[in-house]
Design brief:
It contains 1 helix and 16 strands. By secondary structure, it is mainly beta. The longest helix has 4 residues. The chain starts with a strand and ends in a 14-residue tail after the last strand.
């Protein structure tokens, strides 16, 4: 009614139980208002507790605005109530002056100690000598131009990274994708990161593809990074992932994926997951369906 929307969630966090489950909870929600095809603005809240102590307390605002078919603005701001500071700003402007050409401008800001307040991933935990400095702040400004001709898309992009501690860096490159077939697609890209520190000087290459069969699908992705100088004795880092899925029925799906990675901070990182998804039909009954 009047363009309003409301959503809410609650439960127990799904992280691995690294202590006890006593007093653990997570809940939140979002309320939004908008006009279809023109705009929508939302306000959200999240609270997570561990052992009855607040470990995450965040508020946010998000915006989508499309005054014309060729202009779209999308963005969000995240506020950390535990540290009383803005954790993240991210806004994107897309212009499509011609059917085959689009321009995308982005602006982001991240405060590491406010954004990574609570995490169960060691790479984002603030430990002495760790890869993430809690006092680091990052600002990015970037532009991407994409040209689409039939089933082929080609793009070039540039992004300026301004780190408070690590200094600045320029990230630029090109991407080529093919998605002309309903059952297959592929892409490749090459980028250069040119910064002031060894960790921000590297070449990045990526190739990926997907293929769908009658009831099954397969996706592969390979990312390789070559540093100009060794980082913790490692010059070449990479990650490879493989995912497969099978539609058992129109509503039931079985999937599995595995990922292997090696980088300057992990000798090897292996992850895997098996999942089963079932889509329940919860549509409300229409008039005349009750045959009692």
């Amino acid at each position: 009614m009047w363009g309003f929307g409301l959503s809410a969630f609650g439960g127990v966090p799904v992280e691995t139980a690294f202590d006890t489950r006593t007093g653990d909870s997570i809940y939140g929600g979002r309320i939004s208002q908008g006009r279809e095809g023109l705009y929508r603005i939302g306000v959200s809240h999240l609270l997570e507790r561990n052992n009855s102590t607040d470990v995450r307390k965040e508020e946010g605002i998000d915006l989508w605005f499309r005054p014309f078919n060729a202009v779209e603005l999308l963005g969000s701001t995240q506020y950390n109530s535990l540290t009383s500071a803005t954790a993240r700003n991210a806004y994107y402007l897309t212009l499509a002056p011609f059917k085959v050409l689009s321009l995308r401008t982005e602006f982001t800001e991240i405060s590491y100690k406010d954004y990574f307040t609570s995490t169960n991933l060691s790479v984002f935990q603030f430990q002495p000598g760790g890869p993430v400095d809690p006092n680091e702040k990052l600002k990015t400004v970037g532009e991407e131009a994409a040209l689409v001709i039939g089933s082929v898309s080609a793009s070039v992009d540039y992004k300026k990274y301004t780190y408070r501690i690590a200094g600045s860096a320029d990230y630029y490159g090109a991407r080529l994708t093919y998605a002309g077939m309903r059952h297959a697609g592929a892409g490749l890209s090459f980028h250069r990161m040119d910064g002031k520190t060894d960790a921000l000087r590297y070449d990045e290459s990526r190739i990926y593809g997907r293929i769908n069969f009658k009831q099954a699908d397969l996706t592969a992705d390979l990312l390789a990074i070559t540093y100009d100088a060794k980082i913790n004795g490692v010059k070449n880092a990479y990650s490879a992932s493989l995912a497969a899925g099978y539609n058992l029925t129109a509503k039931a799906r079985l999937g599995a994926d595995i990922e292997y990675a090696k980088n300057p901070y992990f000798d090897k990182d292996i992850r895997g997951m098996v999942k089963f998804v079932y889509n329940f039909d919860l549509a409300p009954a229409t008039k005349g369906d009750d045959k009692r």
